[in-house]
Amino acid sequence: MHLFLTELPEKEYFSTPIATREGILDFKEIDWILDSKNQGMPDNIPFVLKDLLLNPQENRYMCYFENNQFLKVEKQ
Predict the structure, then answer these.
(1) Most CB atoms within 10 A, among 12, 26, 31, 47?
(2) What pLDDT does 1 receive?
(3) DSSP letters of 11-31?
(4) All residues at 6 or more sequence positions from 44 whose CB lies less than 8 Å from its CB, including other chains
């Protein structure tokens, strides 16, 4: 997974969502992504994103799932 994070000027406008080969491109607020009640994000993303925001250098994570249930994340 590659994560691209940017801040857009308030007057900047991009028409989204946009369907791409990889999926749907859309802009979301970080609070929306990290919300524990959000069922629109894979369970491991909030764990990884919080660390990436605090440690923006290149990181590697191992995410463990069993029977489609998220178990844990290990930073390597």
Answers:
(1) 47
(2) 64
(3) T------EEETTEEE----HH
(4) 61, 63, 65, 70, 73
Which residues have C-beta within 8 Å of that of residue 38, sequence separation ≥ 6?
32
Identity (one letter) of the amino acid at 47?
Answer: F
- Residue-wise pLDDT tens digits, 14-64: 788 999 998 888 888 888 888 878 888 888 888 888 888 887 778 888 999
**Residues 6 or more apart from 72 whose CB is under 8 A from it?**
63, 64
pTM assigned to the model: 0.59
How far is residue 26's CA from residue 47's CA, in Å, rounded to a whole number?
Answer: 20
**Gap between the Cα atoms of 12 and 38, Å rounded:** 26
